[in-house]
TrEMBL record:
SUPFAM superfamilies: Nicotinate mononucleotide:5,6-dimethylbenzimidazole phosphoribosyltransferase (CobT). Pfam families: DBI_PRT (PF02277). GO terms for biological process: cobalamin biosynthetic process. Belongs to the CobT family. The active site is at 314 (proton acceptor). The gene is cobT. The keyword Transferase applies. It catalyses: 5,6-dimethylbenzimidazole + nicotinate beta-D-ribonucleotide = alpha-ribazole 5'-phosphate + nicotinate + H(+). InterPro entries: Nict_dMeBzImd_PRibTrfase, Nict_dMeBzImd_PRibTrfase_bact, Nict_dMeBzImd_PRibTrfase_N, Nict_dMeBzImd_PRibTrfase_sf. Catalyzes the synthesis of alpha-ribazole-5'-phosphate from nicotinate mononucleotide (NAMN) and 5,6-dimethylbenzimidazole (DMB). PANTHER family: NICOTINATE-NUCLEOTIDE--DIMETHYLBENZIMIDAZOLE PHOSPHORIBOSYLTRANSFERASE (PTHR43463). This is Nicotinate-nucleotide--dimethylbenzimidazole phosphoribosyltransferase.
């Protein structure tokens, strides 16, 4: 059987480093376990970076942007041209993720992987459109198998490099909550009523209509689905496939990935189904207000760090969680031990 790059295993986690990091946590001047999940985060970063003094200096944020043919069905509260307009807003520094990336001093890159308007190259914007939009997933396959393979490789090209400490993937693509809901319905065997939500803010009638669109898509595609790649090609999006490639590529290079919200969790679920060794390299940042996100998180056995009622996407929820990780590592690296501080244990 031929093996694709995305099926190659990620590095395994060294249990000895995990033990040593846990031991250091026990020696710090606090009751054991009192820093809760901050302790687990620090221990995970020690194991990922193979050091007892983990760093969080090089953060890479890559936003994948693409348009969706399914927008023709009226599934979003916003018009399709907002995708391209928001890409320009990312580049000009006005989008939420632009502001947060600057705050975090992160590397920031936007990849046009299939936006329906020509966009100018710039230091932050890379134009690699596979096509001007996917096809309408409620009527045909969103993309071909060869387009899918190309999107996965573009994702890997823009993944973290080995000297990065953290990767955040973001997405922009009007209509992409419909694609994400269809992915969850097919992978988790859930009815569209359980996976469809308001996205950018469609009303109750809009949600009912969106459910019908997803129901139609599932009826059309389900008989032809043999594996996860079929799900991604048939009801996914170019930016979702790019994220899958970037997540797998980052994890294979030994860089942990911080997952954002509803759409990025669809990419994370696909990445883990395609390559289960990716799961050990994922941290989940927040629970999105998109109603079905909690089910998707459950399916991944994921316990996100935050629940702030955010439902933006762009990688914004992940960026918001970075300072918490920074604090976890700072505490791990700089707190005194009972011995060094002369505190009785
Ligand atoms: C101005 C604006 C900025 C955004 N940034 C992210 N999204 C989010 O909304 C879109 C998905 O929602 P739906 O499926 O309902 O279209 C994606 O582009 C997502 O990233 C935005 C949406 C809008 C309107
Ligand atoms: O949680 C998300 O990622 C999300 C939710 C709604 C719309 N766009 C993104």
């Amino acid at each position: 059987m031929t093996s694709h790059w995305f099926q190659q295993p990620c590095p395994t986690i060294d249990p000895a480093m995990t033990d040593s990091a846990q031991q250091r946590q026990l020696n710090l001047t606090k009751p054991a376990g009192s820093l809760g999940r901050l302790e687990d985060l620090a221990v995970s970063f020690c194991a990922w970076q193979q050091t007892l003094a983990p760093k969080l200096q090089n953060i890479k944020i890559a936003i994948f942007a693409a348009d969706h043919g399914v927008c023709a069905q009226g599934v979003s509260a916003f018009p399709q041209e907002v995708t391209a307009q928001m890409v320009l807003n990312f580049v000009h520094g006005g989008a939420a993720i632009s502001v947060l990336a600057k705050q975090l001093d992160a590397q920031f890159e936007v990849i046009n992987i299939g936006v329906n308007t020509a966009l100018p190259d710039s230091p932050t914007l890379v134009n690699k459109p596979i096509r001007l939009s996917t096809s309408d997933l409620s009527e045909t396959e969103a993309m071909s198998h060869s387009e899918l393979l190309l999107a996965l490789s573009i994702g890997r090209e823009h993944a973290a490099k080995t000297n990065d400490h953290l990767f955040i993937g973001g997405e922009m693509g009007i209509g992409n909550t419909t694609a994400a809901s269809a992915i969850f319905s097919l992978l988790l065997n859930l009815a569209p009523s359980e996976t469809v939500g308001p996205g950018t803010g469609v009303d109750a009638n809009g949600i009912t209509h969106k459910q019908l669109v997803v129901t139609k898509a599932i009826a059309l595609h389900a008989p032809h689905i043999h594996n996860e790649l079929d799900v991604l090609a048939r009801v996914g999006g170019f930016e979702i496939a790019g994220l899958v490639g970037a997540y797998i590529g980052s994890a294979q290079r030994g860089v942990p990935v911080l997952i954002d919200g509803f759409i990025t969790t669809a990419a994370a679920l696909l990445a883990c189904r395609i390559n289960p060794s990716v799961r050990d390299w994922l941290v989940f940042a927040h629970r999105s207000a998109e109603p079905a996100h909690y089910r998707a998180l459950q399916a991944l056995d994921a316990n996100p760090l935050l629940d702030l009622g955010m439902r933006l996407g762009e990688g914004s929820g992940a960026a918001i969680a970075v300072p918490i990780i920074a604090s976890a590592l700072n505490l791990h690296n700089h707190m005194a031990t009972f011995d060094s501080a002369g505190v009785s244990s």
